[in-house]
Amino acid sequence: MNADFIFLLLSFFTVASLLLSLVFVVGIVWRVEMELDLSFKFFSLAVIFLLVSEVLSLLPVAKNADWWQFAIPIVKLLIASNLLLGLFFMRDLIRRMDGERPSPDPVIPGQHR
Q1: Nearest Cα to Cα of residue 71 among 84, 56, 86
Q2: Which residue range is the domain that position 43 belongs to?
């Protein structure tokens, strides 16, 4: 088998997996509320940035352009920071569910504390 064909096949499966992940994560965001929604929004952004970086790496211009050397670290930073934020909010939500942290009091409009 040709190495270019194997690379193209692996890239195709990567893009297909990322698109499927995006469908799943958007489906979760669509059905949940509040902080879980916020957490999965960051996860979906991370998947989007990962998908963008994968598609851009397949473009022929990406291999020869000087700007690409700056784009790769920026996209990787966006991926990592969105994953970190998603995990942070998910961890915070789970800690409240387990009783490790108190839940914030709900704010009712017109009610004074």
Answers
A1: 56
A2: 3-97
Number of domains in the chain: 1
Structure tokens at 48: 């989007």
- How do residues 6-21 score in pLDDT, each as one tens digit? 888 888 888 888 888 8
71: Cα within 13 Å, side-chain hemisphere? 16
Does residue 106 sit within a domain? no
pLDDT tens digits for range 45-62: 888 888 888 887 777 776
**3-class secondary structure per residue, the chain:** CCHHHHHHHHHHHHHHHHHHHHHHHHHHHHHCCHHHHHHHHHHHHHHHHHHHHHHHHHCHHHHHCCCHHHHHHHHHHHHHHHHHHHHHHHHHHHHHHCCCCCCCCCCCCCCCC
pTM of the model: 0.65
In a domain, 28, yes or no: yes
